[in-house]
Amino acid sequence: MTILLFIPASFALNMAPGPNNILSMANAKRYGVKVACCAGIGRLIAFVGMITLAATGLATVLYTSEKLFLVIKIVGGLYLLWLAFQLWTADPTDGGNEASGGKSLFQLTRQEFFLAAGNPKAILVLPAYNAFLAYGTVQKRRIT
Questions:
Q1: Nearest-CA neighbor of 28 among 20, 36, 40, 39?
Q2: How far apart (Å, rounded) are the C-alpha atoms in residues 125 and 13?
Q3: Cα separation, 2 vs 127, whole angstroms
Q4: Which of 2, 59, 77, 82 sits most deeply, having the most CB atoms within 10 A of its CB?
Q5: pLDDT tens-digit series, residues 3-55
Q6: Coil, strand, or helix at residue 61?
Q7: For residues 79 and 114, is the Cβ–Cβ distance under 8 A?
Q8: Alpha helices for 32-94 (secondary structure H)
Q9: String of b and e for 102-116 (b: at least 16 CB within 10 Å)?
Q10: What is the DSSP letter of 16?
C-alpha cells in the first residue's frame, strides 16, 4: 500500500522544476540540446554520489552531524545565490555572443555537478528512498 503513495509522490517531486532543470534548459537554449545533455553528466555524477551515500547509510551520518550538514546546506545555498546574482547582472542582449565563445563542455559539466550536489531538494529526498526501502524490508520480514 505504501508503494502506491510513494511512486506518485516521487514522480511529482522529480517533475517539479528546480534549479537543475532550469540550468539544463538554459544550457540547451544557449549551447544546444546535445551540449546540455552531455553537460548533464555532471548532475548524474552528483546524484550517483548522493544515492550511494543514501544506500550505504552514510546519509544518516550527515543528518546526525549537524555541523557537517549545516556546512553542506550553507555552501549549496551560497552557490545558488551566486548563480542568481550571475543571472541578475547578466546582459540580456548579449545572449547571441555567448554561444560562440561561451563556456566549455567541462565548465558546463562542472556547473551541473556543483548545482546538483548543493541542491537542497536532492539532499533531503534521496535519504527518504533509503528509508522507504528499509521500511519495505522490515515489513517483508514481518510477514514471513
A1: 36
A2: 9
A3: 17
A4: 59
A5: 676 677 666 766 677 788 888 889 999 999 999 999 999 988 988 887 777 77
A6: helix
A7: yes
A8: 33-39, 41-56, 58-64, 66-89
A9: ebeeeebbebbbbbb
A10: S
Inform me whether the pLDDT recorded for 99 exceeds 50. no
User: Each residue of 57-97: pLDDT tens digit?
Assistant: 766 666 677 787 788 778 878 887 887 888 788 777 755 55
| Amino acid at residue number 83 | L
What's the pTM value of the predicted model, to 2 decimals? 0.60
Q: Rounded CA gap, 18 and 57, in Å?
A: 26
Q: For residues 130 and 134, give the distance between their C-alpha atoms in angstroms, rounded to a whole number.
A: 6
In order of 36, 94, 110, 128, the CA distances from 31 in angstroms are 7, 14, 15, 35
Is the Cα dihedral 103, 108, 110, 112 positive or negative? positive
Please give the Cα distance from 78 to 84 (Å, whole number). Answer: 10
